[in-house]
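Subject — a protein and its fold

Tokens — whole-number codes for backbone shape
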Amino acid sequence: MRASWIAERGDTEELPGPTSSYGRERLADRKLAELRFDLRRKPLRAKAGRCVTQMHYAKKGVITPEMEYIAIRENQRRDLLSDLITRQHPGQDFGASIKRAITREFVRDEVARGRAIIPANINHPEPSR
């Protein structure tokens, strides 16, 4: 699902294979062949001078498809929840103010501030659940 989002940004490049000596040794180890997933995609890395983290994009003001996806998921069935469940529990909010509806801008701002993280590594394009 995320592979096309990553490719559309145009800030990564495909590598021919593992670049570390450890990765190459494990790939050459025939005893591990039956344990490997049948991955057909090559590893990616950021192009020279580029940064591909969600925090980097957020700090630049960019709303990524990942941020939009999170906003959609966070809002699912939220309108059906009672006020008791959605009410903020007592405690430290660290400056965050959870809105009734989570917007993509809210997600971007929280990531930029470091109060939210998106585990979205370019070499793991499948979404976290």
Summary: The chain has a mean pLDDT of 86. The longest helix spans residues 65-75.
